[in-house]
């Protein structure tokens, strides 16, 4: 086992290589080797045109705040089911609905928005709601 000299420059000249084959990435540096599982790039959504055709929703800040405050208590805190760790917003017609659950309790509220929209759903993460 190599002793640390306290000098950070001792490790600056390490050669690092990354090889990707099938569903694994092999990372090598000096005597260390790490094998990491990977996912195919085609499994991830393309983000370049996500805002194409997006519409603006007009809602008073106070109304949105009250809508989120009225349901946030029911959000899960650290559930492995990621979709419970936030608030589901449903836009349908001229109604904006907010739903939160942790699997034991359920909170629902809705409000009116200006305009008429086709049905759309999005989960706001816990940090965004708080």
Helix content estimate = 10-25%
Order of helices and strands: EEEHEEH
Say what the CATH topology of the largest domain is.
DNA Polymerase III, Chain A, domain 2
pLDDT below 50 for ≥5 consecutive residues: which ranges?
1-5
The gross shape turns out to be elongated
CATH level-four homologous superfamily name of the largest domain: DNA Polymerase III, subunit A, domain 2
- Measured by DSSP, the beta-strand proportion falls in 35-45%
Q: Whole-Å distance between the termini? A: 47 Å
The major β-sheet equals:
3 strands, antiparallel
Sheet with the most strands: spatial strand order: 1-2-3
Question: How many strands appear in the DSSP assignment?
Answer: 5
Supply the number of helical segments.
2
**Can you tell me the number of structural domains?**
2
Measured on Cα atoms, how large is the radius of gyration?
A: 23 Å
CATH architectural arrangement of the largest domain: Roll
Give the rounded overall mean pLDDT. Answer: 85
CATH class of the largest domain: Alpha Beta
Structural class of the secondary structure composition?
mainly beta
């Amino acid at each position: 086992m190599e002793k640390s000299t306290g000098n950070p420059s001792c490790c600056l000249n390490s050669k690092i290589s990354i090889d990707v084959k099938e569903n694994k990435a092999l990372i090598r540096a000096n005597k260390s080797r790490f094998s990491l599982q990977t996912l195919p790039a085609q499994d991830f959504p393309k983000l370049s045109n996500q805002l194409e055709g997006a519409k603006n929703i007009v809602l008073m800040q106070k109304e949105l705040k009250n809508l989120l405050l009225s349901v946030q208590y029911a959000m899960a805190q650290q559930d492995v089911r990621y979709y419970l760790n936030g608030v589901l917003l449903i836009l349908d017609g001229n109604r904006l609905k907010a739903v939160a659950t942790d699997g034991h309790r359920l909170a629902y509220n809705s409000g009116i928005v200006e305009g008429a929209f086709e049905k759309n759903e999005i989960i706001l993460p816990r940090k965004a709601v708080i």
